[in-house]
Amino acid sequence: LTVLNAGRRYLKAEDLSGKVFVTSGLGGMSGAQAKAAVIAGCVGVIAEVDEAALMKRYKQGWLMEISNNLDHCIARLRDARKNKTALSLGYHGNVVDLWERLAYELDTTGELLADLGSDQTSCHNPFSGGYYPVQLGFEEAKQLLSTNPGKFRTLVQESLRRHVAAINRLTDKGMFFWDYGNAFLLEAQRAGADVEKKGANKTEFRYPSYVQHIMG
Questions:
Q1: How many CB atoms lie within 10 A of CB 210?
Q2: Model-level pTM greater than 0.90?
Q3: What Gene Ontology molecular function terms does this protein carry (predicted)?
Q4: Is pLDDT above 80 for 203?
Q5: What does the pLDDT look like over 90-148, one tens digit per residue?
Q6: Which of 152, 154, 137, 208 has the alpha carbon at shortest distance from 178?
Q7: Which residues pair with residue 21 across a beta bridge?
Q8: Which residues contact 120 (CB under 8 A, 6 or more apart)?
Q9: Which CATH class is domain 1-215?
Q10: Would you give the end-to-end CA distance of the chain in angstroms?
Q11: Domain definitions of the chain by residue range
Q12: Is the dihedral of CA 43, 98, 72, 143 positive or negative?
């Protein structure tokens, strides 16, 4: 319902075939995102750093395909988008790499490859394993978390700034992004990312929450 209503509200589209939804998280509640994309008829690309979570969804049949190669992900996204094929593609990697690659594609080809975007990392708990920084691999980051949590925190906040910068680049060209109620925008703001709504008070964000704007 969230994906369908986002399409209706922001894309003015009842039919999401050929539209691309990019997000992250395949763990608990976030694991349903892949299935939702296919039910809605769009192309869903979902990043997940934890291979165990990714493989669980793949074995369940909630993910149609998986890949750890961004070149392959972009090629499959383009193909499914062109042919209006419903697809759930799990990217085994950090969502910041995925967003930055999409921003790179926009900058080099002029092509906006994502129509809808969100995030379901566990940003209510960003410094204890709910969010993994893009600068390190999953296992390396877990080790740093246990040995130097202060450094881990610094890298997470740096990663959040990069995360938002890439999303902002794409939304400036017409992609629609929303907050899934996971404290992503709040923690990004605390990290110094550009998420404040221009001309509004500091408690308002430039992107909407799905509760009020989409489900409501």
A1: 19
A2: yes
A3: urocanate hydratase activity
A4: no
A5: 999 999 999 999 999 999 999 999 999 999 999 999 999 999 999 999 999 999 999 99
A6: 208
A7: 44, 116
A8: 23, 24, 25, 29, 30, 33, 180, 182
A9: alpha beta
A10: 11
A11: 1-215
A12: negative
